[in-house]
Write a structure and sequence with these properties.
By secondary structure, the protein is of the alpha/beta class. Helix content is 40%, strand content 25%. Strands 1, 2, 3, 4 and 5 form a 5-stranded parallel sheet that branches. Strand 2, helix 3 and strand 3 form a beta-alpha-beta unit. The termini are far apart.
Length: 112
């Protein structure tokens, strides 16, 4: 998240957009979880958009975010851009039908 300033991230957060960028780690999951919970408790009916650009990472940690996404009472859109690989794919797939998308040039990679 080095490329976006805190001010820019704040503006997006106020519009209920969360960026998951980079390797999925304990620290990232903690940050994303806090953001998701904050938005869920603020308003359970307004949609949240999770933008995903990740090479994957710790699968156990990814399932932590996955569980929040699939049990949320808020509608959650998952949108892939750039690269969505490995454990990040389960997060993209956590968006319900009609609420998960990828940009045309996004590369999605699953392991066999």
């Amino acid at each position: 998240m080095d490329s976006l300033s805190e001010r820019e991230l704040d503006k997006l957060f106020k519009k209920r957009v969360i960026f998951l960028h980079g390797e999925i780690t304990n620290e990232m999951v903690a940050q994303i979880s806090v953001q998701l919970f904050s938005l869920m408790y603020e308003n359970q009916e307004k949609p949240i958009t999770l933008m995903i650009n990740s090479e994957g990472g710790d699968i156990t940690q990814a399932f932590g975010i996955h569980d929040l996404l699939v049990t949320s009472t808020c509608p959650i859109y998952t949108i892939g851009l750039g690269e969505v690989a490995s454990s990040a794919v389960i997060l993209l797939a956590a968006g319900k039908r009609g609420k998960r998308f990828i940009y045309p040039s996004t590369e999605v990679m699953l392991h066999e």
